[in-house]
Write a structure and sequence with these properties.
By secondary structure, this protein is an alpha+beta fold. The protein has four helices and five strands. It has a single domain, classed as 2-Layer Sandwich (Alpha-Beta Plaits). Strands 2-3-1-5-4 form a five-stranded antiparallel β-sheet. Helix 1 crosses helix 3.
């Protein structure tokens, strides 16, 4: 039995780009995002964000992160607070936020990104 659409939490999708010398793998991106969110906001609060890495292109170092609409600002803050991935200096640049993946790709990932769902 599934949850009625009116009872599901609304999502927002955040497009981001990783600025780093070299490249990171999808799993490193996931670990880094979750680590920063829990370090800054705490486990209890970060668990409410509903963070999920929907898509990530390892070649272009771009991704789409989904989160609960109520915590969109906190999710964006967690991304911008990232200063390193492993032992390398890195930053996550937020490209934009949208209510649908289709609109997010059209507005902020115009370069014909070939991201695939995870």
């Amino acid at each position: 039995m599934s949850i009625a659409p009116t009872l599901r939490p609304n999502k927002r999708y955040i497009a981001f780009k990783v600025n780093i010398n070299g490249a990171i793998k999808t799993q490193e991106a996931v670990k880094t995002i979750l680590r920063e969110a829990t370090a800054f906001f705490g486990e209890n609060t970060a668990s409410r964000f509903g963070l999920w890495l929907t898509e990530f292109d390892e070649q272009k170092q771009q991704g789409i992160l989904s989160c609960n609409r109520k915590y969109k600002g906190e999710a964006v803050a967690a991304l911008t607070l990232i200063g390193s991935v492993g032992s390398s200096d890195a930053s996550f640049q937020v490209l934009g936020v949208s209510g649908t993946i289709k609109a997010l790709k059209r507005k902020f990932l115009k370069d014909g990104s070939n991201m695939s769902a995870l």
